[in-house]
Amino acid sequence: MKISVNYSGDYSAIVTTEIKHKIQTIHHGIYTKKAVGADYLGWVDWPSSLRQDWLKELHDTANDIREKSNVLVVIGIGGSYLGSKAVLEALSKNFHPYNKLEVIFAGHLVSGSYLKQLMQYLNSKEVTINIISKSGTTTEPAIASRFLIQYMEKRYGEQASSRIIVTTDENKGALRSLAIEKGYKRLIVPEDIGGRYSVFTAVGLLPIVAAGYDIAEFINGAKMAEQDFRTLDIENNPAIKYAIIRKHLYDSGYPLEILATFDDKLKYVQEWWKQLFGESEGKEGKGIFPTSVLYSTDLHSLGQYIQDGKRILFETFLLTEKADEDLTVFESPQNGDELNYLSGLTLHEFNHVCYEATSNAHLQGGVPQISITIEQVDEKHLGYLLYFYMMACAFSAYLLDINPFDQPGVEEYKTNVFKFLKKPGYC
Ligand code: PA5
Fold first, then answer.
1. Which residues lie below 8 Å from residue 57, measured CB to CB, with a gap of 6+?
2. Residue 425 maps to a domain
3. What is the pLDDT of residue 83?
4. 212 Cα: distance to centroid of ligand 1 (angstroms)
5. Which CATH number does the domain housing residue 141 bear?
6. Label partner for 267 (CA 20 to 30 A): which of 108, 182, 230, 257?
7. Same domain, 188 and 245
8. Residue 381: CB within 6 Å of ligand 1?
């Protein structure tokens, strides 16, 4: 398993003695669990510590869901939904709802029309819901839960409680109390793992395994990454390399990173990545603003800005070596569209050429670049990639002297919503 990180500039020139020392300190802090925010470093060795009996319980729960239901509604926001959403979108076929079970997300937005239409849609399905909130107090998923629990109770009566699974903190939160009172099955979000680092816990794994994907492979990928990214070899640790390049570009006047991909299946990996880096790094007036583009679509919109607009951004391409399925351009006798010159070229190859051409043009336009290449999109490579990003993000934030694991800005809005809505205890 391998991930390669390449930089358009001279990497060895930016690995100064100062940065080497800083990386050593960060590395020591992470692995001795003494770094700032160490209470939330549980994700670092989580993949290798997963027990078989725990995974069996998840599989059993997934089988039980599929026996009873053909739709799983996952209620959650931020780190409580983006990990599984990213993996499910990456692995599922277009125009076909998931593998063995349809998974629908709710609670990541507040919309009467979304919830009404969802409940109408569910009427013709058999349903299980999985409510995910570490704190158990986040307003948006709590609102969706209120409506969907009522829906389940009206529809399934006493059986409703066997169709509701709650993933939350072991010891605290309103959702935990509700689950205990109503007798819902409870899965735990480990105390030392925050939302955006929780994709390898029950938060991410249950929806993925319920949909029929191979979580053993997903975890294997993460385990390999856990081992590979432990090394302090600055030249050969892609997670550290990515963090160092980002820091260098940030210091050189590029505070905005665009994650670009040609693979539409990675659209929610981009969303997950934005949340991971944005929420981990954007603090104390510092941090790179993470954004994303999907090519070729965005070459015909934001591509203009990237090529020619204000020079504050750098671009990181997320590339895959192999496509899961492909088509080859064929020879047409009439050649009315004048595309015969492409015959024999696969569409994946076309995208690669398009990447090289785009990268070259943007570089000429003054956009520094990084490329991150994985072999293919499957469970194992996704596990490896997501762990890579988590480790890179921790190094990146620490390089800015930021605690990667809190989110005071998000808490501020959450508390303000409580105040503005006059929640008891907040007005
Ligand atoms: O990464 C994080 O910690 C956040 O994005 C949370 O996941 C998000 O705010 C949802 O929080 P909770 O799971 O407590 O409802």
1. none
2. no
3. 98
4. 25
5. 3.40.50.10490
6. 230
7. no
8. no
Q: Is 103 helix (H, G, I), strand (E, B) or coil?
A: strand
Q: What global pTM score does this model have? A: 0.96
Using the predicted structure, report yes or no on whether residue 407 has a pLDDT greater than 90: no
Which atom of ligand 1 is least distant from the CA of 189? Answer: 13
182 is catalytic: no
Find the domain containing 376 and state its range: 4-35+221-408
Looking at the DSSP bridge assignments, the partners of residue 316 are 259, 370
* pLDDT score for 42: 97
Distance 234 CA to ligand 1 centre (A): 32
What span, in angstroms and rounded, lies between the C-alpha atoms of 190 and 79? 13
- Between strands 185-189 and 71-75, the pairing is unpaired
300 is catalytic: yes
Rounded distance, CA 145 to CA 286, Å?
35
> Do both 259 and 366 map to the same domain?
yes
Same domain assignment for residues 56 and 179: yes
Going from the Cα of 80 to the center of ligand 1, the distance in angstroms, rounded, reads: 6
Is 414 a catalytic site residue? yes
Verify whether ligand 1 is closer than 6 Å to residue 134 (CB atom): yes
The residue out of 180, 213, 246 marking a domain boundary is 213
Which of 199, 176, 174, 173 lies closest to 187, judged by CA? 176
Query: Is residue 410 within 6 Å of ligand 1 at its C-beta?
Result: yes
